Amino acid sequence: MNTQSKIAIVTGGGSGIGLAIAEKFVQQGIHTIIVGRNTQKLNAAKEKLGPLCEALTCDLDDFAAIPKLISGIIEKHGRIDILVNNAGINMKKEFTDVTDEDFQNVLHTNVTAVFIISREVIRHMLENNIKGSVINISSMASQYGIPKVIAYTASKSAIEGMTRAMATELSPKGIRVNCIAPGFIATEMSAKALNTDPERMGKAMGRTPMGELGQPSDIGAAALFLATDAARYITGIVMPVDGGNSIGF
Fold first, then answer.
1. How many CB atoms lie within 10 A of CB 169?
2. For residue 196, is it within any domain?
3. Domain tally for the chain?
4. The domain spanning residue 175 has which CATH number?
5. FRET label pair with 219: which of 9, 57, 140, 188, CA 20 to 30 Å apart?
6. Which CA distances in Å does 58 have to 15, 67, 112, 121, 171?
7. Which family does it belong to (predicted)?
8. Which of 213, 215, 220 shows the shortest CA–CA distance to 20?
9. Residues taking part in catalysis
10. Along the 249 residues of the chain, how does pLDDT read in single tens digits?
11. Are the C-beta atoms of residues 224 and 28 closer than 8 Å to each other?
């Protein structure tokens, strides 16, 4: 893998899957900029990952801040090679209890912000003839029906469609776009959904052939593969990293 001198952005990189992705990148010599709105978490992650990690606080829900974020990174580093769109929010509610505002809030963060940051980074890649890699993060919620997460499901289904559309348009120009659909991974976000719902936990594990929760590092390894020349002929895919959950009975 030719990873030296690469510059990566990982949104939501202060914890969970984002932190695990950033860790894998740093281990391979990729200068990794983690972005999020929790400065304390970001700084703790930077301390853990060392000098190849840089932390930038930015609320991606503030759409006007995103172009400024990207232009600042380019001004400092001269290039962006890899973008991982990991930041996102979830909401567990009965379908009929979801308000218009609830639904829009999830789409705001999980879809529109992803589009805006991708557009800004890809503009830079095209202008500078960079053979870049964009990795979006989806979910099992887009692979099959999961109750009580209608807005999240809609957002992740949109991400998978965006991945295919982006790949078709951008791959001829040298930018690969792929997506990872994590299964049930042992993170703080999944703990909120599963630990208080034994029935849901039982269903999740019952249809996972490997019989255990995945680890954030499993997603990190997949992202590293897709980000580098090891995956140079792969674009437009949605890769389940799920212990077989998406094919389990």
1. 12
2. no
3. 1
4. 3.40.50.720
5. 57
6. 15, 11, 15, 15, 29
7. Belongs to the short-chain dehydrogenases/reductases (SDR) family.
8. 220
9. 152
10. 566 689 999 999 999 999 999 999 999 999 999 999 999 999 999 999 999 999 999 999 999 999 999 999 999 999 999 999 999 999 999 999 999 999 999 999 999 999 999 999 999 999 999 999 999 999 999 999 999 999 999 999 999 999 999 999 999 999 999 999 999 999 887 777 788 888 888 988 999 999 999 999 999 999 999 999 999 999 999 999 999 999 998
11. yes
Question: Which of 138, 141, 160, 162 has its CA nearest to residue 150?
Answer: 141
**Looking at the domain assignment, is residue 207 inside a domain?**
no
3-class SS of residue 95: helix
Query: 144: domain range?
Result: 7-185+215-240
How many other C-beta atoms can be found within 10 angstroms of the C-beta atom of residue 60?
Answer: 23
CB 13 within 8 A of CB 21: yes
Whether 22 and 48 have beta carbons less than 8 Å apart is answered as no
How many other CB atoms are found less than 10 A from the CB of residue 172?
Answer: 9
Give how far Cα 56 sits from Cα of 59, 62, 119, Å.
10, 14, 19
The span from the CA of 74 to the CA of 77, in Å, is 5
- Residue whose pair of structure tokens reads 């990991």 in the numeric block: 86
Q: Could you tell me the end-to-end alpha-carbon distance of the chain, in angstroms, rounded to an integer?
A: 36
Identify whether 170 is part of a domain. yes
- Sign of the alpha-carbon dihedral angle for 43, 35, 132, 110: positive
The answer as to whether 199 is a domain residue is: no
Structure tokens at 239: 């890769």
Helical segments of 178-227, H only: 188-194, 198-206, 216-227
